[in-house]
Amino acid sequence: MTDVSEGGRLLAAVDIARAALVDEGQQPGAHRRSVAEGEWAAAHYFDAELAGYRGWQWCVVLAGSPGSDEITLSEVVLLPGDGSLLAPPWVPWAERVASGDLAPGDLLAAEPDDPRLVPNQIDTGDEFRFDSESEDPDDIGQIAGEIGLGRRRLLSYDGRADAAQRWYDGDFGPSSEMAQAAPFPCCTCGFYVPLAGALRAGFGACTNEYAADGRVVSAEYGCGAHSDVQAPKGEGSPAYDAYDDGALEVISVTRDAEPARS
Fold first, then answer.
1. Hey, how many other C-beta atoms are within 10 angstroms of the C-beta on 58?
2. What is the total count of domains within the chain?
């Protein structure tokens, strides 16, 4: 059975709890509450008068034992209270890195089990054509580059799908404001250069310096700088005929004298 008098004595030992904090070199604020922790322990909470720890509290745990009047200090800990200032939840480094974080000189290594990459000997599904009768070393080098020979790792199906979805949903995809207002899609533009491999059907690079130059764009993206856009015809404003200010007749006007006033 719980010794009621012992529990009450621990809950009332505010001075002992405060003295424990002072011995630790702290200056506790007001005592907020005492809470029974089991049969032979009690926790005392004090305001923490520490710069930068707004709303935090000191928790001092005191303990007793059956048949003894001695009170033992068990623990002193700083805990957040209601409305206290807390650090944001910890996020692993690999999950904190976002697109655009890489700066000149930074190194960002892919994890060994990165799902976006696969060892080179695994087929990634990219299509390529090999002409066995070709003896041109340039042709062989081009084919080797396309199928990834010489690279230790290649883009996996998941990595390729993630990139395609990200590009499709991004600023250079068909749902962007620019694409919605465009007269033609990029796949019909002379400035559009399709990507190689499995992404060829859906994406390419823009080579128009006045548009999305150097960007990977969706084949369904579009802008007002399409190669088939026609320049306005006619002279002057397209809404009105041009005004010929060269055909003017200059007329001299003589002003009559003012009438006499009566």
1. 27
2. 2
